[in-house]
Write a structure and sequence with these properties.
three-stranded antiparallel sheet, Dcc1, globular, Sister chromatid cohesion protein DCC1, alpha+beta, DNA replication
Length: about 375
């Protein structure tokens, strides 16, 4: 039984569905609001998937799962037409029918199938987007080959693969710092991104540039080494680590500079790093233009593990970046519990944020994939 405030929209269909009396050109879709009708009429696609998952209704801005709901009764659509009085007939029988007959309307009734489709909001799976883009990772022009290019999708193919709208896709591409190569999309390898970031900072330092007002043209002229031939990569890196001041002037994010420097320091160390020693090295590695900035260890939450070591009477840091963890949720939890048998919720949260969907919370994903040992502490689920 449908609720009294349910809104159903009649949608044309090219396939016959329902019993023999049903109209083959119609089916019903329950919509979230009357405002949604205009958006649906302007641009809406039905996208199915070969693996048998739910079909999705995708507009220009949003996407929805479609779930078929059966009903015990068929739906009837009635379309009123104009008044039925005919000017072509002049028989006495029609004249005797009276004025009431002239006011009657002729209605055409179409019987529709005894089901409708419910719409459930579908959110973009950013980790799946990252996985798809990683298949054709860009490692530099010298490493390019046709086989790698063939693995890179276009925006339109990504919308179909992910059953998502163009608006949602573009937001996701920004989140994963996607990179466009010849009209197709991918991500840049960590090695190439690090090289570009290092050269940007080196060029800015050598020319005593103001990090709050870096001109793209000046940076591109000043970078040296192999990365100097990768102008698009350098510009991409600068844009993703800065705030735009104008179309070609950017202010670099000092927090992102500090995180980049910390990653570089920690990745070179094979043994745990005492915090006091690390902080001294980290501060010294910061660009001379940031002397007033003091790096905050809270920036490292998804870069390393912190534990107390009695031998040095200090906390020690072990390099453990979330970017190196599996993108598949179950595989990620398996890896996390291989490293620690029990996790504090505050410690594990930074390593899960990039695989949590927009419609989920960290607690929800923990409840699905781990066991709550006690308040704020999580352990692995027993193998089934």
């Amino acid at each position: 039984m449908l609720a009294s405030n349910t809104i159903l929209k009649v949608v044309p269909s090219s396939q016959r569905c329902g019993d023999d009396n049903s109209d083959p050109s119609l089916f019903f879709v329950e919509i979230p609001s009357l405002d949604f009708i205009q958006e649906m009429d302007q641009a809406a696609d039905l996208i199915g998937k070969e693996n048998g998952s739910k079909a999705a209704l995708v507009t220009s801005k949003k996407s929805f799962y479609m779930t078929k709901v059966e009903s015990s009764n068929s739906f009837i659509v009635v379309n009123p037409s104009s008044n039925s009085s005919s000017s072509s007939s002049s028989s006495s029988d029609e004249n005797d029918a009276g004025n009431d007959n002239k006011r009657r309307k002729v209605c055409k009734a179409s019987i529709c199938p005894s089901f409708h489709y419910e719409l459930t909001r579908k959110y973009l799976d950013v980790s799946e987007l990252r996985r798809i883009l990683s298949a054709g990772t860009y490692e530099g022009d010298a490493e390019e080959c046709p086989s790698k290019s063939s693995l890179r999708p276009t925006k339109s193919s990504l919308c179909v693969l992910l059953q998502t709208s163009l608006t949602e896709l573009e937001k996701g591409l920004s989140l994963v710092e996607a990179f466009e190569v010849d009209g197709k999309w991918t991500v840049i390898s960590e090695e190439l991104k690090n090289e570009a970031f290092e050269e940007i900072l080196a060029a800015a330092s050598a020319n005593d540039m103001n990090l709050s007002r870096l001109e793209i043209s000046s940076i591109l002229k000043s970078v040296t080494g192999d990365i100097s031939t990768e102008k698009d990569v350098v510009e991409h890196c600068l844009r993703n680590n800065s705030a735009a001041v104008s179309s070609d002037v950017f202010s670099m994010d000092v927090g992102k500079i500090a995180t980049f420097k910390a990653r570089k320091i920690l990745s070179k160390r094979s043994t745990p790093y005492p915090v006091k020693e690390f902080m001294a090295t980290w501060t010294a590695e910061m660009p001379h233009q940031t002397t007033s900035y003091v790096p905050d260890i809270s920036l490292l939450k998804n870069l390393c593990l912190s534990e107390y070591d009695g031998k040095v009477s200090d906390d020690v840091l072990t390099y453990f970046p979330s970017s190196n963890l599996p993108l598949d949720v179950s595989s990620r939890f398996k890896r996390l519990f291989e490293v620690r048998e029990c996790w504090n919720e505050d410690d594990i949260e930074p390593f899960l944020k990039d695989v949590v969907r927009e419609d989920e919370s960290v607690v929800q994903i923990l409840l699905k994939n781990a066991l709550l040992k006690e308040k704020g502490k999580w352990i692995a689920k027993p193998a089934s």
